[in-house]
Design a protein that fits this description.
It contains 27 helices and 49 strands. The chain is an alpha+beta fold and 1102 residues long. It folds into 5 domains: 147 residues, Sandwich (Jelly Rolls), CATH 2.60.120; 332 residues, Alpha/Beta hydrolase fold, catalytic domain (Rossmann fold), CATH 3.40.50; 116 residues, Sandwich (Immunoglobulin-like), CATH 2.60.40.10; 135 residues; 224 residues, Rossmann fold, CATH 3.40.50. Strand 46, helix 24 and strand 47 form a beta-alpha-beta unit.
């Protein structure tokens, strides 16, 4: 059968494409991933640096009825072409949300870093023959006969170079450190390695009581324990814990690249603020059990460890940590993470989508590293520690690391795979888990990840029995590894063991509330002193309807269906074994409530797909951080009888996908609404969230996420930061993006595209790098050279060329310089998209990177460089330059020293070009010139096609965002001349060249010279670019032209004359700029280098 090519460099052999799109395939089966989970998965893959280049559904080829006997059959496989520094992986998804990672067929299971020096083709066999069945994992089983269609995601990624660095980068974006868990789980994020001690600790007069959470593998504090928020029992436990402990803490830490001992050292630093003798109870989950035991062993002489709870812990290790089982590990985790997200409701609960995405992202990052790591388990010390019989397991067991801590409690589960839609387990997933994992891998009771026996095995040195109480979850409960904390029985056990509450939390009844019966407390138990005073224990909150005022329920296939809240109660009451719901005589419902509001979007959204944005309404204060989240700091009074209306608007560089306005009832605790936002281009975006009730505003939140084109050291970007424009003929375009990342580092992306050409490179500058300082030093060198040799043009040019080459080598990778040089004859435009005007990209210098050549192409200004700014609406391809809409500001300076000799000629030039219709900005009696310009900008700029300034400008080198234009001035009463300044800040407040929501219009040219003024030198008026293009009115200009430094007024007029003439002749903006620069190159002045131009390089008058 013919080979299929679903994407460039990707071939499908021995399979047939399925016409139904993946979504239709999933819905037809009733058990695949829903749209919300699919979006989470896509975002996770991208976040891990996996560039999905093909996403198709395949099946076995149709039988050929014309043959009398079977002919040769192609082995089903995928072939992927990769560059020398690339690799690839395939992710299969079969019916029922069964996932499997497929690696290249090379010996050793993949492609070792540095093994290839040229492009090559990787083959992925989908139905391998002759392999022992116990080594095949899920992969070949999914496609043994390809009876059912299979979804195939094919991804390329940048291959690492050093294994140690590769392992470290798997969890590279994790911020390690302590977390105060006093708030919603979405805010359980570490901000650094230290935590400041709350002042209240010093006022206690006793040792503080602390509850410490220790998370598991492929996870974080909110990833492991956030599910407690999703059940009534879990929420009640968290609330009671916050009442009974002075601090509730977690510590985010790396679980793959660090050993439990290294983790314990991190905990020691993170908890250093606690005074000696602080009383610590703790909950460890999964691998966190080993870490907790190491922490106790390390800190038991300084801190007093008491009650310890181990939930599904790898105390004696897990078989999944064996290198031979890594493939099963990643297949299993991907599948059960998706199953767990369906159980908890990724479509409606913000936290679920966030933690699932983070966990799958870590799994995918590990998948990328696996072929290069091979089976060198020592290279992944965090996993190696969990191997049965590992040095860590043996040492902790032999030393009785828990010492005198206790009592110790254990939660252990025995899971038997079966069709459990309420637990996210489809029939297909149950079959695979039973056949490939539970039986073949473990051969004994387990929770899919850890042997049940391992959970209670603390070693021979531990006292017997070590745990005063064991909560064993029977197979009938169907509790698997990633849903422990979404299980009410687990929350109930934590409540009893740690808080000592008498009964599991129950729903209210009709009968008067009786005092709770005391539960027998473990030996040595003393009631905890409450940390806060609350009027009463919280009442159980029913699920709050989300979108369309409907609550989400799990349907029979594990998907989500809408069910009215009344139906939910009826279903709960009629379900077998359900406790009867007794109707209470509630007190009169309050008519007012105090609510807090928060909005949060993905911290690293990608422009290729919609990303979720969650708006949360809560009775408790919500703590958020970063430009991708915002929250109200004070409570807002709302009516409990009216729904709350939320409207999301994309202000810049993005738009809302689907419904932009939704309503939610005022919740008893918290509720969330889910929206989707899609970015237009890589870079900064603005999203406005307006919250109202009955037409009255309650809150307004602004998010400023940075959309990314993709991730990875080298990105073959298909999405540009501005709309693509086809270059003429064989021409190419270089685009340069400045992207400020979440961790504070600056990423510079170079994107070279044209016919048959698509290359992109990323360069991440360290957090210590300051663009402002770099530019200040660069401009200072230019200024010094100018002052020393301004009369010697060639000498000055030679000096600044040397400076420019040094700066270029620091900011532009050698590969980029080589590619620019190779394609120098094709490039006819360079576009810089940035958020600030600081960097003088025009002055970077490109020459032959090999050296020794006589040819050079000079400064990027000569290549045709045009800028644009993030958050400024992208202008159209058409410019208007109507003669009767040309206005100018040319001051008549009162001080003779300030007068510009060419000012009259500049007026004449405008008059000649525009048929005598160019006119000055009108100045009313009694107005200063700055007042007239400000009035014009706010009232009349929308009727102006060209606003031209010919004047003096002044700016300090590192204050370019606070520049001033010097206007005519005023004579004071004592006869002196007072400066009249037009600051860029005033322009930013007032400029309105077009109505909000329409295309930018108007050309602004600031010909600011400093000839004859004190302080002449390299200092520009770049701040006006931001003011005119991104004013507060959102009615910015379409083009801005200004100088990076002071320019001579003669050549300034020449530049403007040539620039306007070229535009009026129909030339593109980029070509008009090139012509204007060339016209000024007379080897007597360097004005031709000074100008910076913002706009659409391909725009022309029309």
């Amino acid at each position: 059968m013919p080979v299929q090519t679903p994407a460039a460099g990707v071939r499908l052999v021995g399979v047939a494409g399925v016409d139904a799109p993946p979504a239709e395939l999933r819905r037809s089966r009733g058990g695949g991933t829903d749209d919300a989970t699919d979006a989470v998965l896509a975002s996770a893959l991208d976040g891990a640096g996996l560039n999905v280049v093909a996403d198709v559904v395949v099946a076995a080829p149709p039988a050929d009825g014309r043959r009398g006997r079977a002919g040769p059959v192609e082995t089903p496989r995928v072939e992927v072409d990769v560059a020398p520094d690339e690799s690839a992986v395939v992710l299969l998804e079969s019916a029922g949300s069964v996932f499997n990672w497929v690696f290249p067929d090379e010996a050793g299971g993949g492609r070792r870093a540095g093994a290839a020096t040229a492009p090559q083709t990787l083959a992925f066999t989908l139905a391998p023959e002759g392999r022992s069945s116990d080594r095949r994992g899920l992969a070949s089983a999914i496609v043994d006969r390809l009876i059912e269609p299979v979804r195939v995601r094919i991804a390329r990624f940048a291959a690492g170079q050093a294994i140690d660095l590769l392992v470290d980068r798997i969890e590279g974006d994790i911020v390690e450190g302590p977390i105060d868990m006093d708030g919603p789980a979405l805010g359980w994020l570490a901000t650094g390695p230290k935590l400041t001690a709350p002042p209240s600790l010093a006022l206690l007069g006793r040792n503080p009581r602390v509850l410490l959470f220790v998370h598991g593998t492929f996870s974080s504090v909110r990833g492991s324990f956030g599910a407690l928020e999703q059940t009534v029992e879990g929420r009640h436990f968290l609330e009671r814990a916050r009442q009974n402990y002075d601090l509730v803490l977690g510590v985010d830490h790396r679980t793959l690249a660090a050993t439990p001992d290294a983790n314990a050292a991190l905990f020691e630093d993170a908890l250093a603020f606690l005074p000696d003798g602080a009383e610590v109870d703790a909950i460890g989950f999964s691998r966190g059990g080993l870490v907790l035991r190491a922490v106790v062993a390390r800190l038991k002489d300084r801190l007093r460890f008491g009650r310890l709870v181990f939930v599904g812990c790898t105390n004696a290790g897990t078989h999944l940590a064996e290198p031979a089982n890594w493939r099963t590990l990643v297949d299993l985790y991907t599948s059960i993470l998706v199953a767990g997200s369906k159980l908890l409701g990724a479509a409606t609960v913000p936290l679920v989508g966030v933690v699932t995405e983070q966990a799958i992202k870590l799994v995918a990052a590990f998948v990328k590293a696996m072929p290069q790591i091979g089976v060198e388990e020592g290279k992944v010390p965090g996993l190696a520690a969990m191997r049965p019989g590992s040095d860590v397991v043996r040492r902790l067991a032999a030393a009785d690391a828990l010492g005198g801590a206790g009592p110790v409690h254990v939660v252990a589960s025995e899971f038997e795979p079966r069709f459990e839609p309420d637990k996210g387990i489809t029939r297909e997933l149950a079959a695979f888990l039973g056949d490939r994992v539970a039986d073949r891998l473990f051969g004994a009771a387990n929770d899919l990840v850890v042997d049940t026996a391992s959970m209670t095995d603390f070693g021979a040195a531990a006292p017997t029995p070590v745990h005063s109480e064991l909560r064993r979850l029977p197979a009938a409960d169907s509790v698997y590894h990633v849903i422990y904390f979404a299980t009410p029985a687990v929350a109930e056990a934590l409540l009893g063991w740690l808080i000592g509450d008498a009964l599991p939390f129950a729903a209210p009844s009709d009968e008067p509330e009786a005092a709770p019966l005391p539960l027998p407390a473990p030996a040595g138990f003393a009631p905890a002193e409450p940390r806060r005073t609350h009027s009463a224990s919280p009442e159980p909150f029913p699920d709050v309807p989300s979108d369309d005022a409907a609550a989400a329920s799990i349907d029979s296939f594990g998907g989500m269906s809408d069910m009215a809240s009344d139906d939910l109660e009826a279903a709960a009451a009629s379900s077998p074994g359900a406790a009867p719901i007794l109707e209470a005589a509630p007190p009169p419902a309050p008519t007012q409530a105090a609510c807090f509001f928060a909005a949060e979007i993905d911290s690293a959204p990608v422009v290729a797909m919609p990303v979720p944005l969650f708006v949360t309404v809560s009775r408790e204060k919500i703590t958020v951080s970063g430009p991708y989240a915002a929250a109200t700091s004070d409570p807002v009074a709302v009516s409990t009888s009216q729904p709350i209306t939320v409207t999301v608007t994309g202000l810049a560089n993005c738009a809302v996908v689907g419904a932009a306005t939704k309503q939610v009832a005022v919740p008893a605790d918290s509720a969330a609404l889910r929206f989707e936002v899609q970015g237009f281009a890589p870079g900064l975006a603005k999203v406005q969230v307006e919250i109202q009730q009955d037409g009255m505003p309650l809150a307004s939140l602004l998010l400023e996420p940075v959309f990314l084109a993709g991730t990875g050291d080298k990105v073959r970007a298909e999405v540009a930061a501005v709309p693509n424009r086809t270059a003429a003929g064989n021409a190419a375009i270089l685009r340069i993006y400045e992207l400020r990342q979440q961790d504070g580092t600056l990423l510079i992306r170079y994107d070279l595209s044209g016919k048959g050409l698509a290359e992109a490179w990323d360069m991440v500058l360290p957090e210590s790098f300051s663009m402002e300082t770099f530019v200040g030093q660069f401009l200072a060198k230019l200024d010094a050279a100018y002052r020393q040799s301004k009369t010697e043009y060639k000498l000055f040019l030679s000096r600044i060329t040397d400076f420019a080459i040094d700066a270029t080598n620091q900011l532009v990778p050698e590969d980029v310089r080589g590619a620019l040089w190779e394609h120098r004859d094709r490039i006819d435009a360079i576009q810089v998209v940035a958020d600030s005007p600081y960097m003088p990209w025009e002055l970077l210098y490109i020459d032959d990177p090999a050296g020794g050549g006589a040819e050079n192409r000079g400064f990027l200004a000569e290549w045709g460089l045009v800028r644009w700014m993030y958050n400024a609406v992208w202008p159209s391809d058409t410019l208007a330059l109507r003669a009767d809409r040309v206005r100018y500001v040319i001051p008549d300076y009162l001080n003779v020293k300030d007068q510009l000799p060419q000012a009259t000629q500049e007026r004449d030039m405008l008059g000649a070009l525009f048929g005598g219709k160019a006119a000055p900005v009108e100045r009313f009696d009694g107005e200063t010139q700055s007042e007239s310009v400000n009035r014009f900008l706010s009232k009349n700029a929308a009727e102006c096609d060209l606003l031209h300034f010919a004047c003096h400008g002044q700016a300090q080198q590192m204050a370019v965002l606070n520049s001033d234009i010097v206007l005519s001035g005023e004579v004071t009463e004592n006869g002196t001349i007072a400066n009249d300044l037009l600051p860029s800040s005033a322009v930013k407040r007032r400029a309105l060249f077009h109505a909000k929501g329409t295309d930018p219009s108007g050309v602004v040219f600031v010909n600011a010279c400093q000839t004859g003024r004190a302080g002449e030198g390299i200092s520009g008026v770049s701040g006006f670019a931001d003011a005119f293009l991104r004013p507060a009115t959102e009615g910015g200009a379409a083009v801005f032209v200004g100088a990076l430094w002071s320019v001579g007024d003669t050549l300034a007029r020449t530049f403007a004359d040539t620039f306007y003439s070229q535009l009026l002749a129909g030339e593109r903006l980029v070509d008009a700029v090139k012509a204007a620069r060339k016209a000024c190159q007379d080897e007597s002045d360097f004005t031709w280098l000074a100008y910076t131009v913002y706009g659409n390089p391909f725009a022309r008058t029309g």
